[in-house]
Amino acid sequence: MRTLFAALIATTALAGAAQAATVYPLDRATILNGSPFDFKVEFKSVVKPEDVKVTVNGQDYKSVFGTEAKFVAEEKGKDDKVLGSALILRGAKLPAGTYKIEVAAGDDKKSVTWDVYATADKPKAKNIIFFLGDGLSVAHRTGARIMSKGMTEGKANGHLNMDTLDRAAFIGTSSTNAIATDSANTMSAYMTGHKTAVNALGVYADRTPNTLDDPRVETIAEAVRRTTKKSIGIVSGAEIEDATPAAVVAHTRARADKAEIVGMMYDVKPDVILGGGSAYFLSKDVAGSKRKDDKDYIKLFKDAGYSLATDKNELAKVSGDKILGLFHTGNMDSVLDRQQLKKGTVDKFPNQPGLVEMTKVALDNLSKNPEGFFLMVEGASIDKMSHPMDWDRAMYETIEFDQAVGLGLEFLKKNPDTLIVVTGDHTHGVSVIGTIDDEKPGTDMREKVGTYADAGFPNYEDKDGDGYPDKVDVTRRLAVFSSNFPDYYETWRPKMDGPFEPAVQNEKKQYVANEAYKNVPGAVFREGNLPRSADTAVHAVDDVILQSTGPGSEGFKGYLEESDVYKVLVDTFALGAKK
Amino acid sequence: MSRGIDVLHFDRRTFLSTIGLAFATVPFREAYAATTQLSFGELYGKVSVLGLEFSDKVKTLTGKPVAMRGFMAPPLKAEAAFFVLTEIPMSLCPFCSSDADWPDNIVVVYLGAKQTFTQPNQLIEVQGQLDMGSWIDPETGFVSRLRIRDASFRMA
């Protein structure tokens, strides 16, 4: 112990002495052959430009990049605090190869290595459909399978569509600044091939406060536009400028820059855009707008040739080369609310399409392009309902997501030159542990939780064959719990009156149990195990399971970082062939 | 963001019992004789993807004294001169980190004089002058479209 302590002091002291600059892209970055990226060096102190030496594989960087970086004498942080000098070179490009970048200014030194990789010369598939279940964890799949298909004597009575995919890999989801992760940096890693920091999209997270100046990397939509004539589609039940759909096109340190993200989506102009979040498309003078400027993106998209759909009926009739479908000012309602309970905001937006209908329209339109397409479909509310521990809604969302995957598999049958990927971006600390049986004696709900042999099987029924239980509040239902939680009242039953909101914030910015659930029969208070700043259950660090089928899917095996998944995608499309 | 109706039932019970109390308290009624009650359900006449439209009641009451019942969300920043009144106890959209991620049916309240923050589960009644139209708070940049200005509140 004492030796370890001494060793720690020694390493800490060393790290302090050698003032390490930071180089972006970070060490061990993998970069698509020919793709533009921003090169940035952050020195830890103010240095003189003449003292700065940067080499790439031993050569002066200017000859390798073909241009000179901008020198910033003093980068400033909060309250104009001087952070040090910096070098920035936007839009650098490198041919395939291994690169060692050495940076020095006095004793401020850093060395990083990048792998610029080429792809196959010829595409393996014409189309890619990337299904992203936000927060999709193993328990969601198990729960959805049991609720949707049933189980007899320990064997599933049917399989989910995603169960039938033939290749799989474990995926590491951690961010550049923590083992933990969020939907921005995770999807960004899938969609750019670069890992980044929590909340960041399409950039490395630099030290300056400006969220829009961080060093950029290319997104898959930009790479597809740069190298092919393929179409691009983005489908989500979330706000379309929310982290996951945004990651297909966006560059910002802060996923909350939603108004700017709409502008970035406009710049890339995906051919099909379907989801919620119209509030960020409306000029600030329109009630319901969440913009702080006068830009009317509905008009801008229309002027750019988009046909607009605002509800299910308009979506069914919409035609044209480019489609913008916005079906809610915010996040669209969960399928349990839309189809069965009519709660949430269904009274305000009664005619929202579901993920399956949106996916169908996207496939029908994108497949008209003989060059092929890249389509991203997000099952957004698997995550949005898992945060507040509304497991029934999260399971229904997983079933809906799986039905969208089913459409993809049907498409694959007729179009075998299609790669299908089904994955989550991160996991939740959720587990199915048995059942809760109202028929057990007494009023103490805890004693109605059945574990081991006592769990038996739940009594959901799907008589109408739509894949969803006909009713969610059955008497013997799945017992699902989170490993982590804020203070809340456990009610042991589905939230029939609208999505669960477990905790509310007090004046000390601490989250306390929402007393609205205190008087639900059988409810018990659970003291949280998360910091009091946590509003809901958090993401888990656990690996994600990715499954895939179709040409190119052989690239998925073993353990991969999320950023490695991009390599398989661009290899399938041959976006970085050596020329 | 959608909110629980069981919560609303809970509110309504509280609401009805406190209404009874309010009418029993004569000075309150006299002091605010010209004040019109406005509920969250009465804010919008039209809700659509392409924009919401305030109700005729809101348009008529603009510039006039109103009373609204709801829950106080914690101030966004310590220095904020306003707070957000919500229909049910809530905090910022749990999935996002932006000031903009509030549901549509909120009202921003600017107090006439300093008052102490209440607990998030406490129903309050706010009285003040209704103000409609886009407004950017100069200190926080928070955009609101409906406000109660020169307001005061009490436990409801």
From the structure above, extract its key features.
heterodimer; A: 579 residues; alpha/beta; Immunoglobulin-like; Alkaline Phosphatase, subunit A; 3 domains; 14 helices; B: 156 residues; alpha+beta; OB fold (Dihydrolipoamide Acetyltransferase, E2P); two-stranded antiparallel sheet; 8 strands; 21% helix; globular; DUF3299 domain-containing protein (chain B)
Overview of this protein structure:
The complex is a heterodimer of chains A (579) and B (156). Chain A has 3 domains: 17-117, Immunoglobulins (Immunoglobulin-like), CATH 2.60.40.10; 127-156 and 171-407 and 416-429 and 540-546 and 558-573, Alkaline Phosphatase, subunit A; 431-526, no CATH class. The longest helix of chain A is centred in the last third of the chain and has 24 residues, at 391-414. Chain A has 579 residues and is α/β, with parallel strands linked by helices. Chain A contains 14 helices and 30 strands. The N and C termini of chain A lie far apart (56 Å). In chain A, the strands form 8 sheets. A 10-stranded mixed beta sheet of chain A has the order 16-17-15-14-18-10-19-29-13-30, with helices on both faces. Chain A has a 5-stranded mixed beta sheet with strand order 2-9-8-4-5. In chain A, helix 4 packs parallel to helix 14 and helix 11 (355-366) runs parallel beside helix 13 (391-414). The radius of gyration of chain A is 25 Å and the shape is globular. Mean pLDDT of chain A is 95; it is low at 1-17. A 5-stranded mixed β-barrel of chain B has the order 4-5-6-8-7. Chain B has a two-stranded antiparallel sheet with strand order 2-3. Chain B has 3 helices and 8 strands; from the N terminus they run ααβββαβββββ. Helix content of chain B is 21%, strand content 37%. With 156 residues, chain B is of the alpha+beta class. Chain B starts with a helix and ends with a strand. Chain B has one domain (5-155): OB fold (Dihydrolipoamide Acetyltransferase, E2P). In chain B, strand 7 and strand 8 form a beta hairpin. Chains A and B meet through strand 25 of A and helix 1, strand 2 and strand 3 of B.
